[in-house]
Amino acid sequence: MRLEVITGPMFSGKSEELIRRVKRSIIAGQKVQVFKPAVDTRDGVEYVSSHDERKIEAIPAASSQEVLEKLNQQTEVVGLDEIQFFDEGIIDVINELVLARYVKVIASCLNLDFRTEPFPFKDSKRTVAEVILKADSMVKLSSICTHKISNNVICGREAIFSQRMIDGKPAPYDSPTFLVGAKEFYEPRCREHHVIKRK
User: CATH classification of 144-189 is 1.10.10, yes or no?
Assistant: First the structure.
């Protein structure tokens, strides 16, 4: 039926926007299910939560196939949070939901990894770009660059990248792609202050 994608860097409000859209579908009287990758336990296993503490109930799924297994036949709208943490099969699951089951899918994802490359699915050469490019509609959100220019002053410009941090410094290029975390591992950065640390 329809695929809507919400994308952008860390701390840009992707989950908040997903929650907002899902709640509108509930208000409209539609049958809704929300799924999240089981690996994402940052704010509890059975909720999608935003950084401003809004939340909605969600079903954790350990694999993309589990989304189909736990799908109710009456469901009209499916919310999928953080799809970059699912396996590459989520691409086919989304296609089946939209094309074969006539379900509206609202998906959120990081568009780029900390290297500023299209976010890959684990153990795959396929990326979230494949989902984003097939969307009926796509909104790309941005954050605020929190790079410290001096003791009490941050950059404050539009941030479109996620900076991976290790011990307060940019992570090396060859660091693992998959690291579920929040402010302890990531900072939103603008073009000027995003660093790709190569050896």
Answer: no
**pTM for the full predicted model:** 0.92
- Selected from 2.30.30.90, 3.40.228.10, 3.30.499.10, 3.40.50.300, the CATH number assigned to the domain covering 2-141 reads 3.40.50.300
Find the distance separating the first CA and the last CA of the chain, reported in whole Å: 47
* 46 belongs to the catalytic site: no
**Domain extents for the chain?**
2-141, 144-189
- Indicate which residue of 82, 96, 130, 187 is catalytic: 82
C-alpha 53/C-alpha 160 separation (Å) is: 22
Reported as a pLDDT band with limits 50, 70 and 90, residue 199 is low
Please choose, from the candidates 163, 151, 155, 154, the residue with its C-alpha nearest in 3D space to the C-alpha of residue 188: 163
pLDDT in tens, 52-91: 667 889 999 999 999 999 999 999 999 999 999 999 999 9
